[in-house]
Amino acid sequence: MNTIELQKVKQRYNIVGNCDGLNRALDVALQVAPTDLSVLIIGESGVGKEIIPRIIHDNSPRRREKYFAINCGSIPEGTIDSELFGHEKGSFTGAIGESEGYFGVANKGTIFLDEVGELPMATQARLLRVLETGEYIRVGGQKIMKTDVRIVAATNVNMRKAISEGRFREDLYYRLNTIPIQMPPLRDRGEDIVLLFRLFAMQMAEKYRLPKITLTDEARAIMLKYKWPGNVRQLKNITEQMSVLSEKREIDAETIHRFIPEDAESTQLATMSASGESHSFESEREILYKILYELRGNVSDLRREMNSLRKQIDASRGNTISGNDAGLPSIISNRNDSIGTEARTQAEVQDAVAEEISEPESLNLEDLGRQMVEKALERNGGNRKKAAKELGISDRTLYRRIKQYGLEK
Asked: Looking only at Cα atoms, what is the longest distance across the chain?
């Protein structure tokens, strides 16, 4: 595609940037648009994958038909089949009527499946059948339905790894990946970072009637060296923060360090102090980890105190029996029931102490774990993949904890 046509597409969809990776992605999208081939868009979160299926649909013979963008990670596992393929009346609790589902409503049109890697395995099998034959069955139904839908999918996960771990069907991957389109991360787009900054700064100035912020040469160099783990979405957020919070309208190196790390190789939004006295945390997760660590130390201290108390009780019991044996044999023989009662009472005291010490540990750790999982799911809109990544655990571990804490919906 020539440069003039490419610039027209960028203007129409408000796309900013001239890097080779972006231009190649747009070129492939326009070439594949007239066909009905399935497209898989691959790229990190926040790179702008959602613009590609819109371009494909608008430049295809289906452009006058319906277009649906569906975030597969935001739909609960128990209802996603109904959302996609529809259901019959009475097929499950709450199904008070029939539903066509997205594949029924979007007949002749285009469906964009964002975060397709989050689909449950059973749903993947249904989707494969639609791709291969155009047929599907509604939830609770028996009649085979037909649909003619163009599918464009996107993912930010390593599909090869997901396949090897048994989380994604290999046959579905190859069916979706007929035409792959790779969206470049922001850190690889060079001067596009500055162009995007200018766009977001101008939008903020116009929207809120603020003086437009600009960059000094030093600040510009810092932005170009930063890795941008959140890609375009992160750049937009930081630009909006600086537009509102910075008193200076010319952003210099000192100002920009308040919003992004000094370390050009860092992918964190905040650094941790090495002094050990004061800390700044990237997220609530770090705070909760610190609380858990300190709580574990407190529990260890309580256990030591419990063991010490047990030794004192045992020593006290031994002294009592020894003293009675030496001077009061008749009393011992006459107080067998009393001593037995005292021994039982002491054992009960030990059990009660042990319970008092072990129960807070169990409750506190479980409550904190539950809060961590709830917060992570809430921040990521229910997306389990992203929540697991934020918590630093595997998808399967997160799924087990969701079941353990009763967080399934």
From this structure: 112
